[in-house]
């Protein structure tokens, strides 16, 4: 059955945010919003699945109106589930791992970062979210210019990649996965708590004939990789909102 013959209730489109609906850490453009809500939404059920928390989604996607514009919102890889504007479920990494493991992990990260030589360091090196920890070698309180500078530095020196390798070795006994997303940080979460986690909620309540996912970090180690390659998903690799619009236009025959 081709996509163009499916009804709105038979097809689900899931979107990453950074690099997919917006440029990295930027806000959505009004013309793209108009396209998504006026042309795409009437044709398909739409949802967001991102690594960030809900507040960061609000910042990038024009505020709380997304609660009514999107059918599903899955912040933090889907560890928080929002449907029809209301939170319907939540998982918690602190309860899952336990305080002794968390303290050991945090102490190691802070010790590692204290000895790490990078061009700049700012603040908030570890950020807690419901379903994950976000580790940022330069600190999340950096400017856009500093963010862009570190992104280029990291490509050359592989700061995040090397740190993840050290963590995997040190915490080989702990149920953890590491995923690079965005320009300056990486996520740490229990195995299976990647973006495919949102599919647990969807499959428990709905039967879609097709589920599509759009994301930019689809390479191994990227935070879109697991859902992009999941056999239940039709994956679309994008680099910009322009790519997303082009592919949507093609598959929905807009």
From TrEMBL:
Mg(2+) 2 binds at residue 230. Its cofactor is Mg(2+). InterPro entries: HAD-like_sf, HAD-SF_hydro_IIB, HAD_sf, PMM, PMM_cap. One of its GO terms (cellular component) is cytosol. Keywords: Cytoplasm, Isomerase, Magnesium, Metal-binding. One of its GO terms (molecular function) is phosphomannomutase activity. It catalyses: alpha-D-mannose 1-phosphate = D-mannose 6-phosphate. It is found in: Cytoplasm. Its EC number is 5.4.2.8. Mg(2+) 1 binds at residues 16, 18, 216, 228. Pathway: Nucleotide-sugar biosynthesis; GDP-alpha-D-mannose biosynthesis; alpha-D-mannose 1-phosphate from D-fructose 6-phosphate: step 2/2. Pfam families: PMM. Alpha-D-mannose 1-phosphate binds at residues 25, 129, 140, 147, 185, 187. The active site is at residues 16, 18. Gene3D superfamilies: 3.30.1240.20, HAD superfamily/HAD-like (3.40.50.1000). It comes from the Eukaryota. GO terms for biological process: cellular response to hypoxia; GDP-mannose biosynthetic process; mannose metabolic process; protein N-linked glycosylation. Homodimer. Involved in the synthesis of the GDP-mannose and dolichol-phosphate-mannose required for a number of critical mannosyl transfer reactions. NCBIfam families: HAD-SF-IIB. Belongs to the eukaryotic PMM family. This is Phosphomannomutase.
């Amino acid at each position: 059955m081709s996509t163009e013959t499916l009804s709105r209730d038979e097809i689900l489109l899931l979107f990453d945010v950074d690099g997919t609906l917006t440029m990295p850490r930027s806000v959505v453009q009004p013309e793209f919003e108009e396209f998504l809500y006026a042309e795409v939404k009437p044709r398909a059920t739409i949802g967001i699945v991102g690594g960030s928390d809900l507040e960061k989604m609000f910042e990038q996607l024009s505020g709380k109106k997304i609660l009514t514009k999107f059918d599903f919102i899955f912040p933090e890889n889907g560890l928080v589930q929002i449907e029809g504007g209301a939170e319907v479920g939540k998982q918690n990494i602190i309860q899952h791992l336990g305080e002794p493991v968390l303290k050991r992990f945090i102490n190691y990260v802070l010790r590692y970062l204290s000895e790490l030589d990078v061009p700049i360091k700012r603040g908030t090196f570890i950020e807690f979210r419901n379903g994950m920890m976000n580790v940022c070698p330069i600190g999340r309180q950096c400017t856009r210019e500093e963010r862009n500078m570190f992104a280029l530095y990291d490509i050359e020196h592989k700061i995040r990649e090397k740190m993840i390798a050290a963590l995997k070795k040190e915490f080989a006994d702990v149920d953890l996965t590491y995923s690079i997303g965005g320009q300056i940080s990486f996520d740490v979460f229990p195995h299976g708590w990647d973006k495919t986690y949102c599919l647990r909620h969807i499959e428990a309540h709905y039967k879609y004939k097709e589920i599509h996912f759009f994301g930019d970090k689809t390479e191994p180690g990227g935070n879109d990789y697991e859902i992009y390659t999941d056999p239940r998903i039709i994956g679309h690799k994008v680099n910009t909102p322009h790519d997303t619009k082009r592919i949507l236009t093609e598959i929905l025959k807009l």
